[in-house]
Design brief:
five-stranded parallel beta sheet; two-stranded antiparallel ribbon; 327 residues; Helicase, Ruva Protein, domain 3; alpha/beta; Rossmann fold; 2 domains
Length: 327
């Protein structure tokens, strides 16, 4: 009975989510997976790493999401000559007061779009670590709290290899989800052509949701019921990335490092949010399978042997989902 009541509450309160989706679909065509994951990140207070070719509306989707929820937005274009102070801010000397004053950097906004994050050197990438994990920034000897909610949505171009710097594993693990955005199909691209083919396409959206609404939705999302069998299923999936032989998988030579405990937490949180988007007050194994690839693909590190066999982490994760018993 409690689950039924929770489901009814979710159906009532999820009106705000449906409004956000409707507004996003005014300007984003054929990227439902991207829209859903953006909302999951918002509901779970989780950072997203978005990988896709240029021109697939990654930047547009993130910017419009900030506009719809009435949040401050800042796009940071990562380049090889960027410095950490260009992101966090720096101290400036004021001759009139003979004191140093902190000039805050562009990271002091609710939603940060770190565009082409893999084009910046390690020092700049590491400047995001404290902000992403601690929601604070230190400039000089002063520490400043970031505005809440605070989300980093980073993009990277998979075909750009020259002049790029692979993200450190510690930073990659801090991204709740890693999405791979693909081309739209012919029908979707035709709709894009009709909507956006003019010299001045109408891309305006309305600020229809308040940040306080997101806070309430997050609390409701945390209440979604997860059975102990579902929790055990999540643990089995993560354990299988570390000890695959215990689950009848002969792929130990393909996995260098399995998923961290952070994967367990994020998989549970993201599964709840996925159930929320479906209007349910409980998590099913299918919810975990639907979102699991985005949680695990960047946390399973493959070996050189796997690369020699032209395997990718998605192949390993798919094998695990196919072989771990479903409750």
């Amino acid at each position: 009975m409690e689950i039924q009541e929770l489901t009814e509450r979710i159906e009532q309160k999820s009106v705000a989510v449906r409004i956000v989706v409707t507004e996003l679909e005014k300007v984003i065509v054929g990227q439902k997976n991207l829209i859903d994951r953006l909302l999951i990140g918002m509901l779970c207070d989780g950072h997203l790493l978005i990988e896709g070719l240029p021109g697939l509306a990654k930047t547009t989707a993130v910017k419009r999401l900030a506009s719809i929820i009435d949040l401050s937005f800042q796009r940071i274009q990562f380049t090889p000559d960027l410095l950490p102070a260009d992101i966090t801010g720096t101290q400036i000397y004021r001759p009139d007061t003979s004191k140093f004053e902190v000039k805050k950097g562009p990271i002091f906004h609710n939603i940060i779009l770190a565009d082409e994050i893999n084009r910046a050197p390690a020092k700049v990438q590491s400047a995001l670590l404290e902000a992403m994990q601690e929601k604070q920034v230190t400039v000089g000897n002063e520490t400043f709290m970031l505005p809440l909610p605070f989300l980093v949505l980073a993009t990277q171009n998979p075909i750009e290899q020259e002049g790029t710097y692979p993200l450190p594993e510690a930073q990659v693990d801090r991204f709740m989800l890693k999405l791979k955005v693909t081309y739209p199909n012919r029908e979707q691209e035709k709709e894009i052509l009709k909507k956006m083919g003019g010299s001045s396409p109408d891309t305006d959206v309305d600020a229809v949701v308040e940040p306080s609404d997101i806070k309430r939705l997050r609390k409701l999302n945390d209440e979604i019921y997860m059975d102990e069998k579902i929790e055990d299923y999540i643990l089995d999936l993560v354990q299988a990335t570390r000890n695959p032989e215990e689950y009848g998988l002969e792929i130990s030579d393909l996995i260098q490092y399995g998923a961290s405990p952070r994967a367990t937490l994020f998989l549970a949180m993201a599964s709840r949010a996925y159930a929320f988007l479906q209007g349910r007050g409980y998590v099913t194994p299918q919810d975990i399978k639907s979102i699991g690839m985005d949680v695990l693909r960047h946390r399973v590190i493959i070996t050189y042997e796997a690369e020699a066999e032209e395997k990718v982490p998605e192949d390993i994760v798919s094998l695990i989902f196919d072989n771990v018993p479903v409750p």
